[in-house]
Write a structure and sequence with these properties.
alpha+beta; 3 helices
Length: 113
């Protein structure tokens, strides 16, 4: 791995972290645009009303064990605001899902859709 002071520029020789996050963001937005009959929402505030400066939250699902949410950069807000249900704050409390939980939940969503 090439070392650099800007962590977003760290690369495995193929992609930088910045590029991988952009891929993740685009893939999640695309997935959410295809979802029908399940809630997909966006909010600039967490369930408790707190905010992460420069970020918003996008989530899919409301049932415990199926929730997936990501913080996305605010630069993507305009693209998302007309496609997804807006909430003043996240409609449910984060259920503590880990990155490994998200992988398993994405697999479940793949079989549901």
């Amino acid at each position: 791995m090439k070392k650099t002071e800007d962590r977003s520029k760290i690369s495995d020789g193929y992609y930088t972290f910045e590029e991988l996050y952009e891929h993740r963001n685009r893939l999640f937005i695309t997935l959410c645009k295809k979802v029908r009959n399940f809630p997909v929402w966006i909010s600039k505030r967490h369930h408790d009303g707190s905010e992460s400066d420069g970020w918003f939250i996008m989530g899919i699902g409301s049932s415990k064990g199926l929730q997936i949410s990501y913080h996305l950069p605010i630069k993507l807000w305009e693209e998302c605001k007309d496609h997804f249900e807006y909430h003043d704050h996240a409609p449910f409390q984060w259920d503590g899902h880990s990155p490994n939980d998200v992988i398993k939940r994405l697999e479940k969503w793949g079989s549901i859709l």
